[in-house]
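Q: I have 154 residues here and want to know how they pack in 3D. Can you give me a structure?
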Amino acid sequence: MYALKSSLISLCTIGLIWLLCSPVSASKLDSISTPFTIQVNGAPIAAITDDAENETQVSVGPKPAVFTLHNGRLQSGKWLLGRSATEDRSLLPKKVLWFKPGVTNSAGILPVTAHQDEKSYLLKFSNGCLVEQNGKIFAALMGEYNSNCAVIIQ
């Protein structure tokens, strides 16, 4: 009886977290036709240089990256941005990385979706919300962090 009660409490907790992190009455998109920038806690995601290493963690900075979203792939210049399909299985926040398209198979990058309501977009990185910690960008899976992420249409 105790195990059943404990399981039900766990399921209710997971359902509540999912509801809190999911946008209400929003349409789910895998493409946004207009270029945009992304701000997390008021700071833009920084553009990456062409000579950077593959799978460099995304950071905020003064020069914003300009993105497009097409078929679940978030791209800025020659680079793709997303979560790795081969990350640890914990529920801790996951690193958001830059990937070189010719080096990384696109199947190794988890898809990004945009959820649109009346006036804004919310990006989801395989159901993770973007958060910033010490200038680095992560995807929070459990809603344990206050995600203040904005998509700024250009």
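Q: Anything worth noting?
A: The longest helix spans residues 2-21. The domain at 2-153 is CATH 2.80.10 (Trefoil (Acidic Fibroblast Growth Factor, subunit A)).
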